[in-house]
Amino acid sequence: MATQNATVRDLVGRKLGRYEVLAQLASGGMATVYVARAQGVAGFERLVAIKVLHPHLAHDDEFISMFLDEARLAARIRHPNVVPTLDISDSSGDGYFLVMEYIEGDHFGGLLREAAKAGKRLPPGVSLRIVIDALEGLNAAHNLKDGDGHPLTIVHRDISPHNILLGSDGVARITDFGVAKAEVRLSSTRDGQFKGKLSYMAPEQASSGHADQRSDLFSMGIVLWESLTARRLFRADNNGELLNRVLNGVIPKPSEVDPSLEPLDLVMAKALDRDPDRRYQSAAEFIDALEEAGAGLIATGQSGIANSRHVTKSVREWLGAKIDAEHLRIKASIDSLGKSEMTSPDNKLPRPIEASGLTPSEIRPLRLSPEDATMGAKPSSVRTGDHAPVEATPPKERSKTPLYAGLGVLALLLLAGGGAWAAGLFGGGAADAPPAIEAPPPVAATVEVDEPTPPVLVAEDEADTDVVEAPDEEAHDMDEVAGSVETAANSGSIAARRRRRERAAVEAASAASASAASTGSAASTSPGSTGSTATTERRGREDDDMILSNPYRN
Predict the structure, then answer these.
(1) Ramachandran area for residue 430 (φ above 0: left; ψ -120 to 50: alpha; else beta)
(2) Pairing relation of β-strands 19-27 and 31-39?
(3) What is the per-residue pLDDT across 334-351, written as a single tens digit (0 to 9) for each?
(4) Rounded to whole angstroms, how far apart are CA atoms 81 and 56?
(5) Which residue ranges does the chain devote to CATH 1.10.510.10?
(6) Has 258 been annotated as catalytic?
(7) Catalytic residue among 69, 106, 133, 158
(8) Which CATH superfamily is domain 105-182+197-337 in?
(9) What is the pLDDT of residues 63-103, one digit of tens each?
């Protein structure tokens, strides 16, 4: 005992990585188990159990391999009846340590010991529930497969009451896969080397060191027999005598200790058969047999298999004082080391983003220019007929010079057309109705999608095509404009004809004015003169009709 104490370190108050050690829970042949707390932001705190190798084993390659195997195997098993393995790490000077979920309670051996001290036995239903829970976790380990679906053939090899943890929630959990055998282990057992506790070994494991999953079921049968009878099945003063009893000793029926346990005799006889082929071949088969035996207990007037609430009651009855003392030690350690604060000293919650301005995903936010940040959309394109789309451009400051030039040209054309019409009126003596003139071919227009602006007619002599800006009030206005125009392929020839007509109208108007002045406001009545006046009038009205062909006019 003195040698063992010399090899155990006191890590209380130290930090292993991000875990702060609070109190020691237990110490075994390979490692010491502590309760620690993992801390985070905003007062986050979680209690965990940390398993640390003893100093004289912390740098031994064989034990390190066994330790890593335990972590890797246990982390693969996800089952409520297996103690979860959360993390594995190492620290300078202390070697590797295993982080597991902290189970508030004690192992099954502690519960049996406390009840035996009081001269009591656990109710058979409570013992059945604890063993069935442990078998459920063992079944999950036995059936574990790798990522490719191949069985790992895990054998625990150290099933005992000390490796079945009982929580205050009434749930039993398998733990300590440190000596487990599997296909993926880093370490291997040498010839003649035993792993496990001899008093809970199957005969084939004790005699040759060979063990398979049925060996675990024999060990679980020993645990159940002892919990039902409150006695040790294999016990001796030395290992030689103990080995002889395991291999050849008589195994009493449970009913020989307590006749009320007779419904369990057949189950225990099969579970503790020394021939592996005559035992239960799987943990699931063992569970089914125990559930049937539980129904037999009810038939004899006893309670059947207990539930977790009954187990919790037994845990509190026999382990309550130890659990409360452990609480006080943990609380005292937290008080001495300091509690985690819910907020920072200035009463502000911590923020996930530092002053770097980066988003949590380390992606800088998109910053739009004022031109792009309009209505949350980028400029779109408008397609006119079958022609290529015209990319809409952001709104720009427009000069008023083209507007004034357009108005001047419009006034000139109106004067020219009006003069020709007046010459025809005075020359003909009567105002004839304007002849019907065919509408000129529609002119292709390009619509710009900009900020809402009033419609503007661009001067005809400043571009080859007419450009009409449509107000952005409703979507059907754009459709109406697009439907009222055709392609712009012939826009060049239309503009050329229009300019020729304008020049002809100006020349006709000048000739008419000169003729009217020479005759003293009297128009010529000759046939030729009348034809010239009619032609001028038709051209002027045609030009006027071309100018006033704005689709927005009534």
Answers:
(1) beta
(2) antiparallel
(3) 888 877 665 555 555 556
(4) 32
(5) 105-182+197-337
(6) no
(7) 158
(8) Transferase(Phosphotransferase) domain 1 (1.10.510.10)
(9) 888 888 778 888 888 999 999 989 888 877 777 888 999 99
